[in-house]
Amino acid sequence: MSRPLTPLALTVLRMLCDGPMHPYEMRQRIRDHAYDQAVKITHGALYHSVERLAAAGLIEPLETSREGRRPERTVYTITAAGRDAANFRLGELLARPTAEFPLFGTALAFLNLLPEQEVARQLRHRAVVLEAKLAGHQTANEALLKSGLERYKLLDHEWSIARVRAELDFVRALADDLESGRVTWNDDGESARRPAMPAPYRTGHDTTEDDPTETAREAT
């Protein structure tokens, strides 16, 4: 059984749903539509993703051309299996929360390596960064809405704003609790026994490896 479509592979399939194009055009569209703010994308990874999708039968070459001394450019089109795979993976991502193991969560797990007041100081610094990030997101989102862009095209921006706001609230509250002494530790940085989390929080996580793969059979 193949592994799920990666975010980058899903991005390629989404763009090809609009019509055939070659990887260079995909890269331009990624920048134009700010997909690179939602998905980690590099030049090499994009071409690798296209190759893997083609090998999996989710996209196929439509034509190859060359202009002067420039390298050949192959235009790709999405297959029926590719559409099924993209639809299946999108539905899965919407319906099933996954554990993504953010770095901040790692830091929170090991707070007691530092003194409480040092942790509070670092969290105050993080709050300043988050405040600036939140303001930037909100300003950009408001400008895009005023430009007449449909709201559905900005929902990933709204989600980013909501996440930053929630993290900012958490960070401020934790810094307050550390400074007031409501949260403290007295184990001198030694490892403490931690309670086990429920299974849904311990199993499964998204990967950034570029391996396309929900098949049409899985999509049905």
TrEMBL record:
Domain of life: Bacteria
Keyword DNA-binding: yes
Record carries keyword DNA-binding: yes
Protein name (record): DNA-binding PadR family transcriptional regulator
A Pfam family this chain is assigned to: PadR
UniProt KW keywords: DNA-binding
Cross-referenced InterPro entries: Metal_resp_DNA-bind_regulator, Tscrpt_reg_PadR_N, WH-like_DNA-bd_sf, WH_DNA-bd_sf
GO molecular function, a single term: DNA binding
Domain Transcription regulator PadR N-terminal residue range list: 12-85
Source species taxonomy: Bacteria, Bacillati, Actinomycetota, Actinomycetes, Streptosporangiales
Alphabetical list of PANTHER family matching this protein: PADR-FAMILY TRANSCRIPTIONAL REGULATOR, TRANSCRIPTIONAL REGULATOR PADR FAMILY PROTEIN
Region (Disordered), start-end ranges: 184-220
